[in-house]
Amino acid sequence: MTTAPLSASSFANAARARPARPLISIVAPCYNEAGVIEIFVEAILKVVDGAGYDHELVFVDDGSEDETRGRLTSLADSHSQIHVVALSRNFGKEAALTAGLDHANGDAVIVIDVDLQDPPELIAAFIEKWREGYDVVYATREDRRADTFAKRFTAEGFYRLFNKISALKIPENAGDYRLMDRRVVETLKTLPERSRFMKGLFAWVGYRSVGVSYVRPERAAGETKFSFWRLWNFALEGFVSFSTAPLRVWTYVGVAIAFASFIYASAIIIVTLAGGRDVPGYASLLTVILFFGSVQLISVGVLGEYISRLFIEVKRRPIYVVDEVYSGDK
Ligand code: UDP
Ligand code: MG
Fold this sequence. Notes:
Layout: E1 23-30, H1 37-48, E2 54-61, H2 68-78, E3 82-87, H3 93-103, E4 108-111, H4 122-132, E5 136-141, H5 149-165, E6 174-181, H6 182-189, H7 198-205, E7 209-214, H8 228-242, H9 245-275, H10 282-315, E8 322-326
Parallel strand pairs: 1-2, 1-4, 2-3, 5-7
Antiparallel strand pairs: 3-8, 4-6, 5-6
């Protein structure tokens, strides 16, 4: 486990005072995770028990269809620090995370996956950095061996393109696993958008951030909820939510094509004036028609991506719906 070289002393206005015995919230979204929840809780408790801070575990049941909810509520019955926010249906990980952040009370909040791909042992390093004065401490994967080819492929392409076209920079190989100070969480809560691409929102709020690197293990049990198609849509969401470049590029494509057309048209006119009419031209005509037809359809499609998001934003529906908040019957 290595950490980036910045130290607390490099801040102009020394480290912010942290409470002597802070409350740390651990937020974990769960969708059909019945097989790992108990192992996860055990692993977390091993790390946080007697570690010099108070803790609470906020589980968000993202409309699981398996035993997840029952397992969570019975854990809440036996552990006073466990709270369950059950959503009314599956809203997706981004919405579930938002629900978790909204219900967490800690001085710092840690967002973590329940499948143990985000090693709980990193929490100590997170808190150490937070005490040093960093407001955001995120985990960065040393490699992506544990990921499927589809995931590696989309992820790599995504970060490269995203960081090129968007003014915002998302740290490469950083997932959602991170610690955030209370004021970062409060800032996140003020962001009103419905389409919540969390990695983008995390980067957008800024604050003093630092990465801690780790090797990402395989899932402890169960399987990934992200198919290639879901990842693709996720990436698209990221682009469209955080960049207007795909919209603006058509102006330049249009100008380039107009310029080429002007030259080509001039050439045809000159050739026709000089050499007379030349009727054959079926192949070139058809090629040009098909080409422009596709360029126009693509640009309309891109417009559609933005308009569909405007539509969703404008309706202002809640990001998630809570069915029940359960803290146990003790
Ligand atoms: N998850 C969720 N809602 C969903 C899909 C996933 O809350 O609709 C949770 C899931 O239970 C897990 C985390 O998000 O805790 C990451 O999911 P997964 O492990 O499937 O993603 P991967 O690690 O493959 O990126
Ligand atoms: Mg996982």
